[in-house]
Amino acid sequence: MTLKPLTYQIFCVSLLIIIVVLLINRKNMEKEQTIIPDKVKQEAVLSNIQSRKSVRNYIADKTISKEDITTLIKAGMAAPSGKDVRPWEIIVVDNKEILATLAEKLPYAKMLKHAPLAIVVCGNKEKSSYWYLDCSAVTQNILLAAEALGLGAVWTAAYPYDDRMNAVTESIGLPENVLPLNVIPIGYPEGETKPKDKYDESKIHYNAW
Question: If you average pLDDT over residues 12-20, what whole number do you get?
Fold first, then answer.
């Protein structure tokens, strides 16, 4: 069948329109596929932050896998660091005797008696005079990672209390240039601990007080 010139032109234009529409739809579908995973990721991250809580009771006989320990430490070491100095030192404690000793010496870390594991976040004072700031970021990352893994954890302070810092230093044999910021007991939660809603609009200020 031979098409007349006008009919052929209409056919070509129609075909072109169909192709353009298909290309636009394909581009929109690809865009949606890109946006949806990002949205899911955002919601997961924000939910994890809002769900974080201090957990002080653990299932004593349930140990934490080395894979999860590595995940916690990697998360910690992903923290920001002034001038990228990374003054942190991480000590993993799973020795029951050392955990019991720390529990006895630290006034607010008695839960270490029942924790299968503790991570001690320390800083090298010779690398940075602001080691405690970088190590605080490390600690928060570890706490968030613990929440994501279904673990319970709590920040128990060593720094800036001399007696607590000395107790940690003596218990795990830290060198003089390495100072403990905190001890983080970690384990599988026993019972339910609900997160606190700490959002307070009265503490938000724009441009000036």
Answer: 69
